[in-house]
Design brief:
It is a single chain. 46% of the residues lie in helices and 3% in strands. It is globular, with a radius of gyration of 26 Å. It has 12 helices and 4 strands; from the N terminus they run H-E-E-H-E-E-H-H-H-H-H-H-H-H-H-H. Helix 2 packs across helix 7. The strands form 2 sheets. A two-stranded antiparallel ribbon has the order 1-2. Strands 3-4 form a two-stranded antiparallel ribbon.
Length: 325
Amino acid sequence: MADGLPLRMAISVRRMWSRFTSIAGLGFLLAIRVRPKLNGVEIDGRFRYYVGPQALQPLFSTFWSSGGWRRPPVMPGEPVFSSAVRDGVMFRESPRRGHDEWVSEIRRMVQQRLTVAQIEVAFVASLGSRRLDLRSALSSFAVARVLPRHAFLAAEGRSGCAVCGLLEGDSATDLNVLSFERFKWGGVRRTNLHYVHFDLDQFARAPSLSMGESDLETAAHLISVLSAADAIETSTSVEKRLSFLPSTQAERLTLVDILGVAGVLAPRDHPGFAREFVSVVKRDQPPRHFVDRSYPVSWWKGSDGVDAEVVSEMLPNTAARKFSL
C-alpha cells in the first residue's frame, strides 16, 4: 500500500488541477464576455467611437486642467495616445482640403447621410443624458443644409472666403481640439466649416441614443422656458432659466448658441441658418464695447422669442408637445 500512495496522490493532484483549470478557464471566458470594450467598435458596418470616461480622459487632459485651458496642449504618451486613437476620440492627422472640396464634401454629407429625424433624436436625447457630443449636430446640420455651392470669393481685409470663411487653398484644423470642444461643451466653433464637417462626420460615428417621452417633455419645456423669457433678457442672462437641465453654465450657454445658429432663437433682423446661409461678411455684432456671445445670439433678447416654424421643422416631435409660444 505504501508503494501505491504516491500514485494515488498524483492522480488526486491531477484531478484537482483539472477542476481548477476548468473553473479558471470558465472565469476567463466570462471575463472576456463581460469586459467592457474600451475601443471603438463596428456596428452595422460603421465604426462607432467609444464614449466612456476612460477613453475621454486622455483627450480632456491634453487640453484642460483644473486651471482651465492648457497652453500649449500636453499630448499623452504614445501608448495612451494610441489607445485614444483606437477609441475614436483622438486623431493622428487632420485632413487638408481646398475651399471647393470642403464645400462639396459638407453639402454631400448633409444631402446623402443625415435626416431631420436623426438630428432631433440626438438633440432631444442629449438634454437629459448630457451626451454633449450629440448636441451640436442640430446647428451643424442647419448650417450645412443651406451652404450654397460657390467659388472662393475674396473680400478686402479678409484672407478667407467672403461667403463661408474658408481659405482658398488647402486648410485644416486640429481635429483633437475640435473633438475636445465637442465632448466638453457641445462644440465652440459653431459656424466654422471645419467644425461643421468634423461634427457631422463624427455624428455618423456616434453611439446613438433613443428619444423617450421624458426626453420630449424636457425638450418641450426648454422651448417653453425660452419663449417665456422676459423681454429684456439676453442670450447670456437667459441661461439661468435652463438650470433644470443637468449641466454647467458653460454647457447651457453653448446650448443657447446652438439654438441660435439653428434658427430656433430668432433675433430680429439677424437670422440664424434655418432658411438661408448667412455669409461671413453679414455676421455683424452689436455695437457694444464688450460682446460676449457669438452671432446670431449676441443680438437675441427675450422679446425676440422662439421661431415656432423652425421648431416645427427641425424638432417636429418636440413641437407636437404642448408648449406656449
